[in-house]
Amino acid sequence: MPKLTVQNLANLEVKVGQGQSLLKALQAQGTDWMHACGGKGRCTTCRIIVLQGMEHFGPLTDPEIRYREKGRLKDNERLTCQCTLTGGEVMGRVPDQTKLPHLTYTS
Q: Where does the record place the 2Fe-2S ferredoxin-type domain (predicted)?
């Protein structure tokens, strides 16, 4: 089963089911993650900075392509509400702009 590690959340490990978005996997584990549009791909607040394992992500979705074209989603970022993992292990971090005030982040 694919695994996501969130580096700046004390190396939180999240198992990601087949076809499950990263946001759904995080929520299923009880982890709060910013998603202002409700996980519909209409904003970029749920993005994750991918540090390792970009090759384990599924293809970009239409919303992710639009945000990349507009310069609002960098090459090393994905939208957790849109992306899935095809296997392997991935490491990412929460961007400073979308950190939630009630969570403790590590460096």
A: 2-98
Residues 54-89 have pLDDT tens digits of 999 999 999 999 999 999 999 999 999 999 999 999
Look at residue 37 and tell me whether its pLDDT is greater than 90: yes
In a domain, 31, yes or no: yes
Total domain count, the chain = 1
Q: Which of 73-77's residues contact partners 24+ apart within 8 Å by CB, and which partners?
A: 73/44, 73/47, 74/49, 76/49, 76/50, 76/51, 77/47, 77/48, 77/49, 77/50
Tell me whether residue 107 is in a domain: no
Instruction: Let me know: does 67 contact 81? Beta carbons within 8 Å.
Output: no
